[in-house]
Every structure is written in structure tokens, then in C-alpha cells.
Amino acid sequence: MYHLAKGLYLYATSKEEYSVLLLGLDNAGKTTFHEQVKSLFLPTNPTPKLKTVPTVGQNVSTITLSDMYLKVWDVGGQHSLRKLWQSYYSSCHAIVFVIDSTDIGNGDLENDSSGRLEECRLVLEDVLQNSETEGVPLLILANKQDREDCVEVVKIKEGLVKKVFEGEKGGSIRDSRVLPVSALTGTGVREAVEWVRTRVKWNKEGRPPVMR
Ligand SMILES: Nc1nc2c(ncn2[C@@H]2O[C@H](COP(=O)(O)OP(=O)(O)OP(=O)(O)O)[C@@H](O)[C@H]2O)c(=O)[nH]1
Ligand SMILES: [Mg+2]
């Protein structure tokens, strides 16, 4: 009887858990974004820590949404650390790729080679080409939109994202979106989490959640 009651209790209180992986070049704003997510969804962290240091290793948190737990994995984007990303691919349900919109020249791959646009393209293509990210929903964040020198989101869509997806290294067809955000001010962070929440659910059969 006890075991039955316990089983029913666990069934009634358990939730699906999905994992989201934050990727992007070093200095893109992943940890700042993660801090804002925590401040919005973790009652124990009401104030975001906006003085970040480059991530070596990982920062992990689990936030509770209405219908799921969302585990956020924030990993280091420095060149030497990027080879570690692939160890997270098979268990993630969504990827958020953060771009520093102030460090990609004018945002047009064909007509500008300044900034880190080309590096960004290569890194994004590498992520999409990996068979373990196949079909995983991808949210691209055009971050640092609070700065006057940022490239606007339409240019990033046309100049980078469209070209990556249309190129042969664009990987498989997947659910994707580009959103303008400012991780520093928190603008767009809630919308980003909401996008991930709906997409991991839609892709539930492709990547089933873990029950917690
Ligand atoms: N103006 C502005 N600055 C930002 C924004 N997001 C991040 N930054 C700044 O960019 C710098 C790098 O931010 P991080 O969040 O540490 O970057 P990261 O992607 O985690 O970097 P790694 O851990 O090295 O991969 C910090 O000085 C942040 O304050 C933003 O939206 N606007
Ligand atoms: Mg970081």
C-alpha cells in the first residue's frame, strides 16, 4: 500500500525536465544571459550577478516553469574550450547560440570581414553539422542590442543566419528563430525562455525529456 501511494505521489508530482545548452563565442554574453534567466525564474537568485568572468568549465542551474524543469548549461566559449561542447550535444533538448552583435563588423559575410563574423559562422556551422545536434531546436540570440554600435537583428538574419542555413554546412532542417536581446538589461530574456519552452515540447518525440 505504501509503495502504491508513494508511486502515485511521485507520478503526480513529477515533471518533465529538458536541458538547454548555451553556446557562442567567448564574450558573447552567455553567462550574463544565464544570470538574467536565474533572476527571473529562481526565487533564491532575485538579483543577477552581472559582473561576469570568462567561464572555464560550466555553470548549471535548473529553473521551474509551469509545465517543466529547464536545466540550463552555460559553458565556456573560449577557443580552447569549444571542443568540450560536443559532450553536451546528445543530452540537450535545445541550443541557444549567443552572438555579440557589436563584434561582427556590419553583419554581412559577403561584404565585410571585420569583427568576428567569420569565426561566428564557422563555429555555428560546426555545431549544426554535428550529427548529435540533428533536429535540435536552435535559438540564435542577437545579444548586446542595448549598445548603439550593435548590428540590428534583420542584418544578422540576412547576412549570417540565412547564409549558414542555406549553405551545405547548415545541417538538418530544424526549428529555429533569431531574437534580439540584451542580456545586460534583461530585455528579451523572458521571450527567449518561452521560445525554448514551447520548442522542446514540440520536439518531445525527437528528444524525449527526463522525468524528475
Ligand atoms: N552592453 C552589453 N554588454 C553585455 C551584454 N551581455 C554581456 N555583456 C558583457 O559582455 C562581457 C562578456 O559577457 P559574458 O556573459 O561573461 O560572456 P560569455 O559568453 O559568458 O563569455 P565566456 O564565458 O568567455 O564564453 C561582459 O563584460 C558583459 O557585461 C549585453 O547585452 N549588453
Ligand atoms: Mg561565460
UniProtKB/TrEMBL annotation:
The keyword Cell inner membrane does not apply. Keywords: GTP-binding, Magnesium, Metal-binding, Nucleotide-binding. GTP binds at residues 24-31, 77, 143-146. One of its GO terms (molecular function) is metal ion binding. GO terms for biological process: Golgi to plasma membrane protein transport; intracellular protein transport; protein localization to Golgi apparatus; response to endoplasmic reticulum stress. Signal peptide: none annotated. InterPro entries: P-loop_NTPase, Small_GTPase_ARF, Small_GTPase_ARF/SAR. Mg(2+) binds at residues 31, 55. Gene3D superfamilies: P-loop containing nucleotide triphosphate hydrolases. One of its GO terms (cellular component) is nuclear outer membrane-endoplasmic reticulum membrane network. This is ADP-ribosylation factor-like protein 3. It comes from Oidiodendron maius (strain Zn).
